[in-house]
Amino acid sequence: MTAAERVEIPGQDPIIGLLNDNGTDKRLVLIAHGSPGHKDYYFFPLLAQRLPYPSFRFDFRGSGESGGEPRYNNMDDNVHDLHTVANYFTAKGYTIFAVIGHSRGAIAALKYAATLRETPLFHVVNIAARYKMGDSTRLKDSAKIALKEKVNEEQDACSSIHLLAGVL
Length: 168
What we know:
Layout: E1 5-9, E2 15-20, E3 27-32, H1 44-50, E4 55-58, H2 75-91, E5 95-102, H3 104-115, E6 123-127, H4 141-159, E7 166-167
Parallel strand pairs: 3-4, 3-5, 5-6, 6-7
Antiparallel strand pairs: 1-2, 2-4
Helix pairs in contact: 2-3, 3-4
C-alpha cells in the first residue's frame, strides 16, 4: 500500500483525513474515531495500512485537523460528516464498502448505516461502542427522561439497518 494522501473535503468546516489507496480497488473503508480522538489516534494508522482495501480515516468536524468547534454529544453532526465523506468519495468513483468505528465513531457508523436505503452498506464494524447509555444515577429526573428517550431513539435507528449489512 502506498503512503497516505492528505485529503481536505471542502465545506464551511472542512473535513481533513488521510486516504490509503492501492490504486486498484474502488471499495473504500471509512474509519471513524471516538471521543476524544482523531484520525491518528491509537491503532488507526496501523489499521489503515493493514486493511486489504483502500481506506479513509478522518477527523470529525471539531476534532483533530478538521474545521469547526469541538462540541459534546454532536452525534447528528458526526453522521452528517460520514454522509459528507461518503458522498465525496462516491463522486470520485469509490463504493463505500465498510465503516469501522471506534466508540463514538461506532455509534455514528451504526446511525449512518441506518439512514441508507438505496445503497446499503456492506459492513459495519463496531469497536467498543457504548451499549448501555442508561447509567443516569447522577442526573436529575428531567435529564433521566431525556436520556431514556435518546437511548430509545438510538436503538430504533440501529434496528433499521438494512439487512444486507454485516454488523460486527
